[in-house]
Each structure stands twice: as C-alpha cells, then as structure tokens.
C-alpha cells in the first residue's frame, strides 16, 4: 500500500474518534455545569480547556466559549467540526480504498457541518453532540461492515484506537482536577459511554477503585485504555507478519506493548495512587506511537499539536 494512502486511512480513524470523544466530553461536562448550581462555570471551563490542550489567559470563561473553541472551530483539527472536516479531507485522497458507503457517510457528515451553528442555536448544543455521536457510530459500523480486513482497515482501526487511548487519558485527567470526587467519576463514565455497562458489571458499586479499574483495565469494554491498546497492538502485529526470531519488528510495537503490559500487571489500588503519572505516560505513549508509525509507514509527519494558541 502507498504510504500516502496508509497515512490518510490512519488519520481518518483518529479524526473520527477525536470528534466523537470530544462531543461526548463536552456534552456531559456542559450538562454537569447546568445541573449542579455549586459548580463554578469558569473553573469547569478552564479545567476542560486545559485537559484538551488549550492554553487560557486570565478572564472568566463561559460554556459558550468552550463550545466555540472545542466544538465549532473549523480551523482546528482538535475541535469536533474541524476533526470531521479533516477526516473527510483525508478520505478524498483514498477513495479508491474505502468503500462507497464509508465515503458517502463522511461526505454527508461534512456537508451537514455547515448547519452546525444554526443547529446549536435552534435545537441546543446537546442535539448537535448527539448528531455527531450518531454519525461517528454510523461511520464505525460501515467501516467494519463494508471494508475488507486488509492493510487499509488495519491502519484505520489502528488510528482509531491510538486516539481512543489518548482521549480517555485526557478525560481521566479531569478527575484529578475535580479532586477525585464521586460525581467526577460519574461524569467520566457517562462521557465514555460506559455508565450502564459499569452498573451491570459492578452492580452499582461506584467508588474510585472500581471506576479506575473499568476505564483503564477492563478487557471487555472497547473504550477502556487496555482494550484499545490491545487492539492497536494486534493491528501493528498484523501489519508485520514476519517479525523474525526474537522480539518484535517495529518500535511502535515495543511502545504499545510496554504500555499494555504496564497496565495489565498493575493493580487498581496502584492505579489510584499513581493516576497522574500513569495518565501522563499514556499521553506520551500515544505521541511516541504516532511518531514511530509515521517513521515506519508514512512520509515524515509529526503529531498534531493540540495547543493552537492562547484564548483571550
């Protein structure tokens, strides 16, 4: 496969996952601000912007500013609208590889973004975020249902899961900034789409240990960090069918494998005590994997810089 095609597929996976996860995070956090009169809107907005890599200056911040920066900014690939537009742009360069259903889904979603500001104004921001999640789910379903399990599919799924690890780590950082409270864990689980599954797994026993174990270590929930790392490692292994007699074939496999085993053999209590360093290590892992994958398979690229300028 041409490196240009592989790179486009990889970033389609990352951008669609980024759009969905950002929509989930924004939706739940904004609902929390509205529902809890004791929550400081300025502090909550600053925390969210900081976690998403957006530097802020002095001055009060409102939910409307957060929606504009993380939701509707067309120029930033770290916003919902910008990420979906970037996914469609990458799809234009590999239409001969993706199925027509996948292309039509991305193209229709892109053209629907023009209505986003009007939809937010008329129907509310939560309706827009629901639409983004629905379109991302359609995209994921069409990818799995209409694409052959060849190298193209592997690169797309690899990108999706690397982004999922990064976004889940960023999401968990909000727990630290919220002081480790139970409402914070509830927000995290809902942001990840994990609340109902968590309740069925632990019979409603919401505490730090169970929540951290579920979001970081669970083998069966596809949005957990461990599950995403496992899928990413499997994709990298399939891309290198002949690893040789010793070790693994690529730097990317070594980086992902170390991160996965570092989680797999760490207990939930250790995770709680070392949550900050663990999350920082996961974010660093995602950046290193991106660089290693780029060196191995693509033209030379660097990771997308989440900080796109200070906010006034």
TrEMBL record:
Pfam families: Alpha-E (PF04168)
Protein name: DUF403 domain-containing protein
Organism, scientific name: Actinoplanes palleronii
Lineage: Bacteria, Bacillati, Actinomycetota, Actinomycetes, Micromonosporales
Domain DUF403, first and last residues per copy: 1-298
PANTHER family named among the record's database cross-references: BLR5612 PROTEIN (PTHR34595), SLL1039 PROTEIN (PTHR34595:SF7)
């Amino acid at each position: 496969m041409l490196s240009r095609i592989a790179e486009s597929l990889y970033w389609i996976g990352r951008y669609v996952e980024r759009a969905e996860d950002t929509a989930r995070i924004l939706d739940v956090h904004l609902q929390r601000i509205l529902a809890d009169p004791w929550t400081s809107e300025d502090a909550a907005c600053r925390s969210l912007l900081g976690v998403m890599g957006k530097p802020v200056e002095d001055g009060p911040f409102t939910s409307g500013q957060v929606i504009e920066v993380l939701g509707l900014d067309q120029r930033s690939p770290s916003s919902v609208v910008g990420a979906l537009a970037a996914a469609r742009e990458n799809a234009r360069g590999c239409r001969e590889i993706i199925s027509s259903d996948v292309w039509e889904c991305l193209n229709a979603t892109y053209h629907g973004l023009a209505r986003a500001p009007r939809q937010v104004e008329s129907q509310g921001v939560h309706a827009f975020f629901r639409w983004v999640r629905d379109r991302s789910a359609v995209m994921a379903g069409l990818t799995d249902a209409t694409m052959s399990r060849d190298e193209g599919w592997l690169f797309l799924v690899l990108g999706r899961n690397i982004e999922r690890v990064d976004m889940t780590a960023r999401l968990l950082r909000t727990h630290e900034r919220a002081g480790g409270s139970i409402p914070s864990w509830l927000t995290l689980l809902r942001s990840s789409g994990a609340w109902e599954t968590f309740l069925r797994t632990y019979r409603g026993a919401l505490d730090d240990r169970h929540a951290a174990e579920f979001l970081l270590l669970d083998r069966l929930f596809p949005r957990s960090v461990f599950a995403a790392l496992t899928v990413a490692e499997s994709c990298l292994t399939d891309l290198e069918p002949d690893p040789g007699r010793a070790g693994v074939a690529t730097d990317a496999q070594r980086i992902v494998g170390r991160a996965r085993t570092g989680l797999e053999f760490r207990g939930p209590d250790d995770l709680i005590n070392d949550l900050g360093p663990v999350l920082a290590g996961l974010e660093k892992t995602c950046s290193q994997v991106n660089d290693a994958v780029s060196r191995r398979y693509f033209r030379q690229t660097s990771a997308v810089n989440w900080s796109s300028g200070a906010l006034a």
